[in-house]
Every structure is written in structure tokens, then in C-alpha cells.
Design brief:
With 56 residues, the chain is mainly alpha-helical. It has 1 helix and no strands. The termini are far apart.
Length: 56
């Protein structure tokens, strides 16, 4: 009986490692998206000002 439990335990450990890897990927993606949002927050006011100047 201990053999199936050992195999099941190894499967769970492997699955946990996989989930942790996916979480790390998501964290990096969130970091990149946060940087993009910051860039947009800096740039968009200038873009809006330029567009407003063209319509005047």
C-alpha cells in the first residue's frame, strides 16, 4: 500500500512545483504590465494635450 501513496505523493509534489512555476510566470507578467501602465500614465497626458492642440 505504501507504493501507491509514494507515487501519489510524488505526483502532488510535481504538481505543486508546476503550480509554483506558473505563479512565478504570472508574477513576472504582472510586473511587466504594471510597468506598461506606468508608462501609459506618463505618456497619455501629453498625447491628449497634443490632440487637444490640433483641434483648437
Amino acid at each position: 500500500m505504501s507504493e501507491p501513496r509514494t507515487h501519489a505523493h510524488e505526483d502532488l509534489v510535481h504538481e505543486l512545483d508546476s503550480v509554483q512555476d506558473r505563479i512565478a510566470v504570472l508574477e513576472r507578467s504582472i510586473g511587466r504590465l504594471t510597468a506598461v501602465v506606468g508608462d501609459l500614465e506618463r505618456v497619455l497626458p501629453r498625447v491628449v494635450d497634443r490632440l487637444d492642440a490640433r483641434t483648437d
